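REQUEST ID: PR-0412
SUBMITTED BY: lab tech R.K.
PRIORITY: routine
TASK: structure prediction, single protein chain
INPUT:
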Amino acid sequence: MKLILKFLLSALAVLILEYILKPHITVDSLTTALILAIVLSLLYGFLKPLLVVLTLPITIITLGLFLLVINAVIIMIASKLIDGFQVDGFWWAMLFSILLSFTQSLLYKLIEK
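STATUS: complete
OUTPUT:
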């Protein structure tokens, strides 16, 4: 039950950020936002650990800041996989990933109580 609620809150976060970053980030519908939440969780679960291991030296040199680049790359991959989700470029994907992490953490605090 909690997992479904987290997917719904992630989709809500995506829709909020799409409204804020409207010309550069587009999400066609609520269904697309739900699919995006599921795809992002799968990409973060399976692809991100592999990318972190492969880029470990540069991540250590940049004191972990390269993880932001990995998150942006995952957002760009998701935009290629999902038809109704579009990101204008790498920097918008990076901004979207930072804001998505922040928004999700705020929304997840609501269900912890």
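NOTES: Residues 72 and 94 are 5 Å apart (CA to CA).
REVIEWED BY: pending
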